[in-house]
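# step 3/5: fold
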Amino acid sequence: MTNDIDPVTPEVNHSSPGNILRDARERLGLTQEYVAKELFMTLTKVKAIESDQYNRLHSDTFIRGYLRAYAQLVKVDLVSLMSIYDGQAKILGLKEDFVPVKQDVSNRKIWQFAGALIGVLFLMWLLSVWFLDNRKTNDYPKVNLAVQNPTVSVNATSSSVASDQSTSASASSIVAVNAETLSVAIKNDRSKFESVSGPSVAQGNDTLEFYFHDECWVEVSDANGDVLVTELKMKDTQLVLKGQSPFDLKLGNAPAVSLKINDEAVKLVPALGTNVLTIKVSRRSDQ
């Protein structure tokens, strides 16, 4: 219905966000009931937005989410609209100061160096064990090569044949003994190496599971600084995210959210007098 209409840029004047959105809605011929249905809002909230009654919209986080959704529906330039709202929010004291969590880069580098050093020492230990085992393997048991001379000599030809057969049998015995000893040594080396090295365990991504009992604005970023989600979630909806912990979370209505990380419940307790909560969530092994 409104796909071919260019976004409307609010004029720089004293118009409020509510007036701008109401004028855009009326210009498109839309009703408040239609807006409420499309944005999954109550009619009361649509009227509160158009009349700039921000005290009925929970908090600054909720207000921003509602304004963004409304502006996209009626094709109003979002940047200009939010700039006007920021000016009003400062006057009304609605803006919340969000202090970003600063990652301790120095500690991370120290742990990385310690891990690399441990890995090098472990590799050197494995090489020394392998070298010592190989030295022990080279010390094969000596085989008595002495062959008794026959007591009765029939003739020169038979004596020579017997000597050749005896020598051949001794050589075959030596080869068999050496092969058996080498096989046992290799098996011992392999079993020792396997017992030292052990199986490797691959670590996967961490999983966040949200359940929303009421409307809530949610912002999530992982340890790499990647923003995983920034949106308004409706009542009785679920959200599952994967990434690297620790996660930075901001919830506009924390009491209405149930949260788990790797199937472990996380307790969400906002400060007294507000439902907004900014928190860092880590898996149990990082705590």
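# step 4/5: annotate
The helical segments are 17-28, 32-38, 43-50, 60-73, 78-92, 105-138, 156-197.
# step 5/5: archive (pending)
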